[in-house]
Amino acid sequence: MPSSLIDVLVRHREDVVLPCPPAELSELCTLAEVLDRVPDPRRVRGRRYSIGVLLALCLVAVLSGATSLACIARFATNSGPGLRRRLGLAACTPAATTLGRLLARLDDALDDAVGAWLARLATDPVEEPAPAPTGLAVDGKTVRESRTNGAAVHLLAAALHDSQTVIAQRQAEAKSNEIPAFAPLLEPLDLRGVVVTADAMHTQRDHAEYVLAKGGHYILIVKGNQKKLRKQLKALPWREIPLQDRTRDTGHGRREIRRLKVCTVRPGLLFPHAVQAIEVKRRRTNRRTGRTSTKTIYAVTSLGPEQAGPSQLAVLIRGHWSVEALHHVRDMTFAEDASLIRTGTAPRAMATLRNIAIGLMRQAGWVNLAAATDHYRSRPAHACELLHLTT
Q: CA torsion angle for 270, 274, 275, 278 (degrees, to 10)?
């Protein structure tokens, strides 16, 4: 069985350029090994399958388009002898209730283990570190149908801009919001060479101090929750500053033009470590109705002009919204918002499995993830190969 990026996928998708494997494969582990090392919350007595086998089954089923525990159980029941042997399944097929009890008791360990593995997979170890900073988007998402006692599960994730790969995830506490989960989310990560991007909710002084203390930088959107800072940004002499970056996009039934200006302020910005202020004017035209809207967005960053110029800042700001595309895929392709899984931490565990599946598909070169699930549904052996992919 191949230990690097999958030979069978290389043959099937010859037009896709895949990431390069590392030189020293013996020092690295496969995804199957990572899943098998996740701490098992079950009692030893009565275990028929190891946690690695059950999580591998769930992941292969999700890669094949399974959206519920019942779908995963049917996938296991309908799998052929060869696939069952590769997954480590015996004659007895795990029931949906068995899978549900396991997923409902998993904690941060699953997210931490697979997040670290995906982070290594998404970084090409052959090349030298890129001079451009790596964008890491922090954003939250509610699993809408997971509502229990009036509160739905809300997840905060950190996703790499370029690959939409989630490398960290935490669940916000009930009757709270995303703000307390920010530091625990980033705690396992090495932020050196990383620019954290986030929406206005996370434009908090403590968050900025935390990111800088871990060796990273930030770009944060400024809205009404930082009134004095927003007032200061609006009062800067933007009319006297020349246009420094302009981009145009067409898609989703609209045309969009974004104009960016940057102003260096040393010292004086009312936010910790902020040295550059950013103004983005976004002009969007609906191609069907012809209606045009204009919106001005302000942001601050700890990156100095010698670390990131206007074009790099524009790329990082635009890259943050790739996390919205990730949320769209989880809802439309994997039906996350319609999922009725509600017990314990099972909604979060299923979201983690979807994140792994999306990360693997992106790294395998898939652009259309709906087509990817169709492919793995008809060729589950290809999905099994992903379990033996090394970082």
A: -90
Mean pLDDT of 203-222: 97
Three-state SS at 345: coil
pLDDT digits 0-9 by tens, 119-168: 988 875 544 555 678 999 999 999 988 876 668 899 999 999 998 999 99
Compute the distance between CA of residue 101 and CA of residue 46 in angstroms, rounded to an integer.
13
- CB of 276 within 8 A of CB of 301? yes
Q: Which amino acid is at 42?
A: R
How far from the centroid of its chain's Cα atoms is residue 66's Cα?
Answer: 19
Is the confidence at residue 13, as pLDDT, over 90? no
Which residue is listed with tokens 């919350």? 41
What is the separation, in whole angstroms, between the first and last Cα of the chain? 16
Distances (CA, A) of 320 to 78, 166, 207, 219, 316: 40, 13, 17, 10, 6
Name every residue whose Cβ is closer than 8 Å to that of residue 257 and which is 6 or more positions away in sequence: 246, 247, 248, 282, 283
Peptide bond into 267 cis (omega under 30): yes
Q: Compute, in degrees rounded to 10, the torsion defined by CA atoms 118, 119, 124, 125.
A: -110
State whether the Cα torsion 322-196-186-391 is positive or negative.
Answer: positive
Whole-prediction pTM: 0.86
> Do 168 and 111 form a contact (C-beta atoms < 8 A)?
yes
* 19 pLDDT tier (thresholds 50, 70, 90): very low
Cβ-contact 180, 172 below 8 angstroms: yes
The sign of the dihedral angle between the CA atoms of 313, 316, 319, 321 is negative
Amino acid in position 161:
H
Model confidence at 11: pLDDT above 90: no
SS3 312: helix
Determine contact, residues 111/169, Cβ cutoff 8 Å: yes
The number of residues in the chain equals 391
Query: Quick one: CA dihedral 226, 229, 232, 238, positive or negative?
Result: negative
Q: Could you give the CA distance from residue 335 to residue 349 in angstroms, rounded to a whole number?
A: 15
